[in-house]
Amino acid sequence: MTISMRFLKGYFHMKEYDCWLQGGFKAALKAELLAAIRAEEGGVPDKGTDAAILRQAAVELRDGLLKRFGVRAVLSGEPGESGIFLGRASWFLERYGERLPEIGGPGGFHIGVSEDRVVIAGTDAAGTLYGVFRFLALLALGEIKPGSAITESPAVSFRALNHWDNIEGTIERGYAGGSLFFKDGEARYDAERLCDYARLLASVGINVLSINNVNVRTSSKLITEDCLPQVAAIAGIFRPYGVRLLLSVNFSSPEVIGGLDTSDPLDPKAAAWWKERAALVYRYIPDLWGFLVKADSEGEGGPFQYGRTHADGANMLAAALQPFKGECVWRCFVYDCAQDWRNTAFDRARAAYDHFKPLDGQFADNVILQIKHGPYDFQVREPVSPLFGALTKTRHTMEFQITQEYTGQQIDLCFLPWMWQDVMAYDTGYGAKVRELLGSGGKGSPSASARGGLEGLAAVANTGLDNNWTGHTLAQANLYGYGRLCWNPALGAEEIAREWCGLTFGPGKTARVVREILLASYPAYQKYNAPFGVCFMVEPRHHYGPSIEGYEFSRWGTYHRAGREAIGVDRTGKGTGYSGQYPPAIAAVFDDPKRCPEDVLLFFHRLRYDFRMKNGKTLLQNIYDTHFEGYDEAEAMLAKWQTLENALPAAVYQSVRERLERQLVNAREWRDQVNTYFYRHTLIPDEQGRKIYA
Ligand code: GCU
Hints:
alpha/beta, TIM Barrel, Alpha-d-glucuronidase, C-terminal Domain, 3 domains, eight-stranded parallel barrel, six-stranded mixed beta sheet, 18 strands, binds alpha-D-glucopyranuronic acid
């Protein structure tokens, strides 16, 4: 079937595997304009990474035009009058004496369209590649026309995706099949598929990729000579796409793979071991971004074992990486997971700030602290971590979780950019919103000194070997949205949904309906989940579905303490004092239950069930209402999807429908278990008399 016939039939043949790089579009530019690609490095033999990226950019443009628009373009290095001109801005100047508009920082590009020329110019090789992908995306969305002039550059230089893949081939918190990189204890992969993955990541600007789990365990051996050739081969696949590898390393490696009797960061033996090891690793992968470390957390070894600080630990690794311009990305998810639930003075939410704020300024220049966006652990709703804005002398990055551990495990639909936009819009109280801290690349932000600021994002990947990459086809939107957010933290959920739906489902009505479903999904999920930011009412271990007291008496430090009269943890100055980690003006808002944002009300307060919320109803009635509404909204999402039965390939339609049906079962469990639990505790009925299981 030809592309135009598809349009005549009004049928856009969405292929799950292709994600947001679908075929079947019609370009709003005349074919002659697209017929020749005059590219810097088009067809030139290898001369290093930049050349490889530039060549890839030209190939992506040619192949993308053919596959996505049915336009056959010839790739040539020849000068000419018309066509698409592709290269670095410096090339335009040298070759054509042409000065292009000011583009901005690394990775940026300019796209300009005139009657007989399309210009795609990057500040550098990666920018040229990003310009190609953006050009193709905007062309598909119908936003490229004669006269278009677009200039963009990424807000931050560190746009990372973290895989939690184990070399056995499994994925910790993975919901989309096995690992793309590993199987049976070694690196084993489908090279063609990895190229497709690299393309997807580059198309949204992701430039750092860690391939192994932060709980390193058996993948500790990846930095040995047994495995390094394989890891280097993976790095080679991603390199032409401007994506550099980062490796998760085991802090205890000197003992685990080095045979030493210590990993003490202040012991010269351990430090020397890491220096040698880094040199070995960089022999195989000269452009490795660096090491990613989870230390002293949930059973992983770390500096605390030796009475050392996290600055001691991170700086030792940083020193080993420094000769190679490598960076040590050090996670701040450090807390004591051996709690006694009886101890109400303990508050896990305090941990990251308590551990890391006092160390601000003590980290080497090539250390980046990686901080989860909330103080707990990727819950459906948490306040933003008080470390953002508070760290002024240490480079750092914010960590999200795209894989839906606590947000429905890619069975339930939950469009995460909805939550991320709230994080970005959060005013830290230090003179900037999170997105402003990011937007300035950390350098010029009000709170950052020359040595450090918030300069990147990282997120745990939601991809695996499933044909549609993400288990739930619509969960592709979360990966897309994350990349776009790294590029531009000011992008809202609606804009991201509009782009993704248009690119994935084409120009018709289907995209509009899917957008409505996506945008409804996060509010629905939040409503039927744990109420008002109280968190952790999930099934222990696997974390799918409700278990109201599943973590109530465990060692993990995550308690809601619901009783007959009240629920929640008092984290104000009168309670655990957590709110005092925020600047006073912000703390004052959180401390006042009348002013505290209601979606985190129970995160900060212990409140009686008859507490009056802003709508005049009691807390308890609001719990009932949100849980009935959340279920109804999930039901409406399914009904809306069912209207698309004839508009989509059967397999796509069925797989999403099946998941939305399972979501409804889950939403029903949440609704009924939460409502029943609170009814049984309070014996106060729902004022609307809806069904609660007394
Ligand atoms: C969560 C998750 C773990 C993961 C950890 C982390 O606690 O359940 O599987 O290892 O986060 O971020 O390190």
